[in-house]
Amino acid sequence: MGAIKREMNNARWTAIAIGYMCLLAYCTALVVYQLGGLITGEVGFNFFTLVAAALVALALWLLFRPNKYEGVNDLSVDAKTLVASR
How far out from the chain centre does Cα 28 lie? Predict the structure, then answer.
């Protein structure tokens, strides 16, 4: 936490970063517990199982969504024009 505060140089952004990490850890633990418990039969199907499934679906969508910046920074060089200009 001290390193985050030193890097951010702002108490507000430090609190936001730590809160984000805690929320991410809680969501990951929820998914593992609910889906693992559902597979082993320890946990029945409930509201939090739906939340865990929605979190998995969100993570998969974020991983496999199309890149809207595809080709924006592509560099094209015409070799003939480059050689002719010398």
Answer: 12
C-alpha to C-alpha distance for 11 and 58, rounded to whole angstroms: 30
pTM for the full predicted model: 0.71
- What average pLDDT does range 11-37 have in this prediction? 96
Q: Is the separation of the CB atoms in 83 and 77 below 8 Å?
A: no
Contacts 24+ apart (CB under 8 A), 26-31: 27/55, 30/55, 31/55, 31/56
Measured between alpha carbons, how far is 32 from 18 in angstroms, rounded to an integer?
Answer: 21
Tokens of 11: 């108490």
